[in-house]
Amino acid sequence: MIDLHCHILPGIDDGAADLEDALDMARQGRRDGVEVICATPHIRHDHDVQIAGLAERVADLNSELGGHGIDVRVSAGGELAETAVDGLDPGELREISLNRAGRWVLLEPAPGPIGDSLGMAVEKLRDRGLRSLIAHPERHAGPDFHERLAALVSDGALIQVTAAHLEDDAAPALLELAQAGLVHVLGSDAHSARAGRPVSLSGALAALGTVPALEGHLGWIAEEAPAAILRGEDVEPPFPVSPAR
Fold first, then answer.
1. How many structural domains does the chain have?
2. Which residues pair with 105 in a beta bridge?
3. 53: domain CATH number?
4. pTM of the prediction?
């Protein structure tokens, strides 16, 4: 499995506190069957993340993983706040694109319900040759939530939901989204092995396996689509978006 959203880089944002924490996060993921973890530090105004140094940090962490015999690969990326889109130049956008492939950006909605500004950010990125992977939209529900997500998908975005929420009280709403064709990939959005959400996707994938609309598509969600995203390929869902009920 591939985790497309994880704050595993140590000492850079509100994620892994130190190297040992990062190594434990990788071990946690490997026990769950995760083979690739995309490091997605926050790219927004309340975190002083230096984009120019991210590739080196990822390389250093991969070296440490190899030295400790942990069979997990960390891929580069970033979690770009929609409010920070305008401030980045083309080189910076490429550096924070998933796997530095220059095609997909993990895009974080602004606080509150999803509004027009997120769609505008998707359009701005599209105009610069990038497609958007919408991070944890379940935190941004509003009265027209389904319609907003469907419009984003129509504009070329894909939807990433947080794995842990498919195993808690939010699960019914997320399974309803999945039945409507509005769940495309998973991310742990883990910040530490010591507390909070774990680096784990298998339980969420099992939950998605109960959704009739996703029958035959779990491999696409867990591996095929994420791998294509990391290769910088265009990805189109094998299941359609259905109208809101």
1. 1
2. 132
3. 3.20.20.140
4. 0.97
